[in-house]
UniProtKB/TrEMBL annotation:
<dbReference type="InterPro" id="IPR038056">
    <property type="entry name" value="YjbR-like_sf"/>
</dbReference>
<dbReference type="InterPro" id="IPR058532">
    <property type="entry name" value="YjbR/MT2646/Rv2570-like"/>
</dbReference>
<dbReference type="InterPro" id="IPR007351">
    <property type="entry name" value="YjbR"/>
</dbReference>
<protein>
    <recommendedName>
        <fullName>MmcQ/YjbR family DNA-binding protein</fullName>
    </recommendedName>
</protein>
<dbReference type="Pfam" id="PF04237">
    <property type="entry name" value="YjbR"/>
</dbReference>
Amino acid sequence: MEKQELIDFCLSLGPTYVDYPFKKNDGSTDTTVVRHLKNKKIFALISERPKDKKDPLKEEVDLIIALKQKPELSEELRENFKAIEPAWHVNKTHWNDVYINSDMEDESIQKLISQSYELIRPKK
């Protein structure tokens, strides 16, 4: 999956919008935040990070989406998929980083995105 495909899928789930609250002025790629329209809660953070953390100026990057999950599911996913790690800069109990184009199928990633959306959407 590509970044725009992730964004499009997130936006297809319901009343959602894209936000860029962490704007960078150095020309690097901004983190794309996807929120619910009514309660403004975040359910996905899409970013690109250097593959080589020791040399961040190299052009190779990982595409990563941070998703909210139930704590018991978060642990299970981390144990079963190399593509999933505790999220960076958010609550690691409730959030996972999913490395795109790793060992998870696109359909499984879409399912996780949908689950994240369901956790934050307003209850009637």
